[in-house]
Amino acid sequence: MKENDVCNVIAEALGRRAGSVSVDDGTNTIKEWDSLGFLSILSALEKRFGTKVAAIDDLATVRSVREIIDIFKREGIS
């Protein structure tokens, strides 16, 4: 899994241009990352990385791209 892939999936899910989301972004820097935006992010991540994403409870509380990437690495998602 490339960090850039996660960033681009999140950008697309939030209706932003590719390259506009970095690993340092999160709820405090992306205004579209609200409760509805978060559901869009989870749905897009599941489509891109597989249904295993839906089973990861830790994703329910993430507030940054870095947290998502760290969880994906820990879970072996690529």
Q: What would your notes on this structure say?
A:
The protein has 78 residues and is mainly alpha-helical. The chain has a single domain (3-75), classed as ACP-like (Non-ribosomal Peptide Synthetase Peptidyl Carrier Protein, Chain A). It has helices at 3-13, 35-49, 65-75. Helix 1 packs across helix 2. The protein is globular. It starts with a helix and ends with a helix. The model has no long low-confidence stretch (mean pLDDT 94).
Short description:
Helices cover 47% and strands 0% of the residues. It has helices at 3-13, 35-49, 65-75.
Domains (count): 1
Note the run of SSEs as H and E: HHH
The CATH class, by name, is Mainly Alpha
Kindly report the average pLDDT value.
Answer: 94
Count of runs of 4 or more consecutive helical residues: 3
Unreliably modeled segments: none
What oligomeric state do the depicted chains represent? single chain
- The percent range for strand residues is under 5%
User: In angstroms, what is the radius of gyration?
Assistant: 11 Å
CATH third-level topology: Non-ribosomal Peptide Synthetase Peptidyl Carrier Protein, Chain A
Whole-Å distance between the termini? 4 Å
Assign the CATH architecture. Answer: Orthogonal Bundle
Class inferred from helices and paired strands:
mainly alpha
> What would you call the shape?
globular
Helix content: 40-55%
Total E-strand runs: 0
CATH superfamily: ACP-like
Largest sheet: none
